[in-house]
Amino acid sequence: MQVNRELFDLVMAPNYNPAAVIPVKGEGSRIWDQNGDEYIDFAGGIAVNCLGHCHPALVNALKEQGEKIWHLSNVMTNEPALRLAKKLTDATFAEKVYFANSGAEANEAALKLARRYAIEKFGANKTQIISFAKSFHGRTFFTVTVGGQAAYSDGFGPKPQDIVHCDFNDIEAFKALISDNTCAVMMEPIQGEGGIIPANAEFAQTVRELCDKHNALLIFDEVQTGVGRTGNLYAYQGLGVTPDILSTAKALGGGFPIGAMITTTEIASYLKVGTHGSTYGGNPLACAVAEAAFDTVNTPEVLEGVKAKSALFREGLEAINAKYNVFSEIRGEGLLIGAVLNKDYDGRARDFLVASANHKLLTLVAGTNVVRFTPSLVIPNEDIEAGLAAFEKAVADVVNG
């Protein structure tokens, strides 16, 4: 059987349009394709591969657990899930954990819990959910409707109701929307898909205060920002605002699918037996790998390293921009970095991604106007430098047409 890009078009649903290159091997911050060509990875599986490819700690955890027990269903619990839940609660504001398989599922659980909590505690009218323009919370029908990009939720029929959107970082607009009928506010501490846009501290603080005033739950979607990505274990810890519910996924498993919703004991008590569930959520394989990833990332060495590597990354991007003048700003936190194109290159982010791939560098976009970088949190400095040298060639290609 010829396993190539053409086979994708024959056998796969057409909702993706992957590159022609098919990677077959990865190690650290490098991957190799079917032809043996080597690439530097600044994409990290979209902020998932927090320890790069095939990190020994994750490989060992998978091998060891793979020879013990794979799946039980939630009729029984298991040791890796309990250990991971304890570590999550020890390291955060939370006291209770619900495991799922993805960020969308963690967000779905968060939204269902918020509605259940509000209706049971305050009455049937308390159902409004406020989210933000350009936000992204997943692809289930509930989460994609809460997400602030109508293009992803239009065309599928009637949407879940009582969901409203506000401009991000707009305090006055938010004040005008929130009321005693608001059950929850969902926000990303840094909007990822929306263009790497950080919440400013005053805005986040005001959202927290108004949620308290109106008995609304504050849900932080930390699917992309969590598990060390910003240089804090979770971004809320650097923002100084504590949510009521937090979703985490992506980097939580370091490449193995897992998600979690974490919250307080009081709020979690409304998720009574039978109200929500997941066949695979909290399975021993995923939790064993996630525990190894979490233990490896949640150290001063790695978290401080993220901040140092971020500075190196930004210096390199600023130096490239000083030569070629293509970016209006470099924004983000830690190793969640967005290079925002200036008006001369408006809407051309994909051109930079394609040019990078031509120079054996994997990058991302966030919308049409931002080149996004989410590399491994432990990427060697020499790989940052080599990748930036490749990126400079890519920028030169775009600039020179």
TrEMBL record:
Catalytic activity: N(2)-acetyl-L-ornithine + 2-oxoglutarate = N-acetyl-L-glutamate 5-semialdehyde + L-glutamate
Domain of life: Bacteria
Binding site for N(2)-acetyl-L-ornithine: R139, S278
InterPro entries linked to this entry: Ac/SucOrn_transaminase_bac, AcOrn/SuccOrn_fam, Aminotrans_3, Aminotrans_3_PPA_site, Class-III_PLP-dep_AT, PyrdxlP-dep_Trfase, PyrdxlP-dep_Trfase_major, PyrdxlP-dep_Trfase_small
Subcellular location, principal: cytoplasm
Signal peptide: none
E.C. number: 2.6.1.11
Description of how the protein assembles with itself and partners: Homodimer.
Similarity section: Belongs to the class-III pyridoxal-phosphate-dependent aminotransferase family. ArgD subfamily.
Protein name per the record: Acetylornithine aminotransferase
Lineage of the species this protein comes from: Bacteria, Pseudomonadati, Pseudomonadota, Gammaproteobacteria, Alteromonadales
This protein's encoding gene: argD
